[in-house]
Design a protein that fits this description.
This protein is α+β, with helices and mostly antiparallel strands. Helices cover 23% and strands 28% of the residues. It has one domain.
Length: 130
């Protein structure tokens, strides 16, 4: 009987050593900013542009209510695409703005671009993760 307890105890100790010393599994989670396809998949009517590898979106109520001052000119829309894909969507591309629309910074906020086109002004908010 005592011998049986020693065998069981030895097996338990060995089991704890073998399984207890294992390396715990670690998971790495990476996040990235949404791309054009993802934005359109979530809202097929989204009005977006890409600038400096970031997607900007307009027609956001709280952004439209802001009083912003046009800063420096940073560029213009160089391509208009009707079908959004990550291959077709590059910096300077939009899905609703005309080619040549002027892009400006907003003095008050770094995450908003001001776009002038056809006598209109629109505010585009950077869509970033986190």
């Amino acid at each position: 009987m005592l011998k049986m307890y020693k065998v069981i105890l030895t097996i338990m100790i060995c089991s704890f050593c073998l399984f207890g010393c294992g390396k715990p599994e670690t998971k790495t989670v990476t996040t990235k900013n949404p791309d054009a396809e993802e934005i359109i998949r979530l809202d097929r009517h989204a009005d977006i542009l890409q600038w400096k590898d970031i997607i900007y979106q307009t027609n956001i109520d709280w952004v439209n209510e802001l009083k912003l001052t046009k800063g420096k000119s940073v560029g213009e829309i160089t391509a208009l695409v009707s079908t959004v894909s990550n291959k077709s969507f590059k910096n300077g591309t939009a899905n609703n703005l005309p080619v040549g629309a002027k892009i400006y910074t907003a003095k008050e906020r770094e995450d908003i671009l001001i776009v002038e086109f056809n006598g209109r002004v629109a505010y585009y908010l950077a869509v970033v993760e986190g």
